[in-house]
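Why do we care about 3D structure at all? Because function follows from shape, and shape follows, mostly, from sequence. That is the central idea of this module. The next example makes it concrete: a single protein chain, its amino acid sequence, and then its structure expressed as tokens.
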Amino acid sequence: MKEQAVSGTKRGLWWRGSATIIVAALQLIQLFFLARWLAPETFGLYAILRTIIGFGGYFSDAGMYNAILYGKPLDHRLFYTLFWISVGAGLLMLMILYAVSPVLEDFYQMPGLSGPVVYVGVILLFMAMGSHYKAVLQRDMKYKSIAIVDIIAHNIGFFTTIIYGYLFKDVMALVYGYLARTMVASAGYFIQGHMRHPLSFQFTTIGLRYYLSYASYQLPERWLGYLSSNMDVLIIGKVLGSEVLGVYELFKQFLRRGIHLVNPLLDHVYLPVMTSYHREGKPFQAIYFQMVRWSAWLLFPFYTLLIIFANSFIAIFFGSVWVPHFPLFQWLCVYFALHSVVQHIGAWWVAINRPDLGFYWNLGLLPVMFFSVYFAAQHGIVVVAMAITLLMLLQGFLLYWTMIRPQTGVELRAYIRSFGYPLGYTLFSFFPLFGMKWYHWGSTGWMWCITAGLLLFYLWMVWKYETDMIKTIIKHTRQ
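And the structure:
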């Protein structure tokens, strides 16, 4: 039985990893073409729509996704009580967006915003109809089913976006692609989950209070977290306009792919272990630091190389029209490198079942983020990127002093080591490239050859000095 469980988990990880890689590849290809077809103003318009989708998605979900995934087991009637609550919330969001769409268009002075906002409401309704079934499938470790649905949905969304974008070259390419992907994904989750929870109109209040209480912190915490992390988009769109926001959004969409590719897989490996340790009363800070460390090992080199080759990479991937904005791209690389390790605090809060900590943290962060970005925006978009990078660095240390140290007693040097060693190895390995770029030494061919050699050297150092950690993550993967 144990061997079967291990085999099933490994297959689940394989399917989850495969789906993540395929989805990331499709998104990168999509960005590659859209950067050449769409104007910066179009990406700025979509940035506002994407923010509304994310914010409204948490409302239509009603905070129930994590409650189903990590909360107590629930019976058939309770599941559908929660399901219809979310569907009702999705319908409410659709009506609200329909009513406020003209107001949003006037506020941001973006002609053509009100029409797509209504489509966003339809997207949120479909998201509400599929999220509960996805949570059940994930809770039951049906990773293959989730992966197949995700791959099919993202392929359909990808081709919808590419075809429409090529023909019409406007923001609806992204909107219709998102809508097609959401509809297919929700239908797939529903079909798969319906076998376990057949559609029903049965309701119950037994056990409902627990889930509503769980969501009472989850929903505000996720709202505040999302709002604080997207405050820059909302302010830039208002202060600097849609064209500047479009450049900012395009770079962020690309750079966050690294985090979206690596961190969910690490959370999938380490979060169950952390949760199990916490329930058994065992200290799990070493597991948390391993998760942070692996993010740093994998993503610090990625963002460092992008900083070094920013000009060349932007010209190749996005097109020459975007090259003048390379300082913004470089600062956002630094921001996402820091974000990749700080972000794992969310897994800490889930592991100890304390979403209230995230709520209070984001409540305090929100006004700081607002004023920092607002005043930085008066001096240009690069200053905004510098400001949010500094804030992310300060967050990392404040989280240690206010949450990690009080709960674990871990010394500061142990915390810094979790990401300090990977940072040191990264800078040491790729230091020659900084010198070559600074003095303009060597041809492009030589630069790529030396980069490949230094990357191999970096991987060799990771293997040589972190063998024990590699064995540990393999062990956790098999458990």
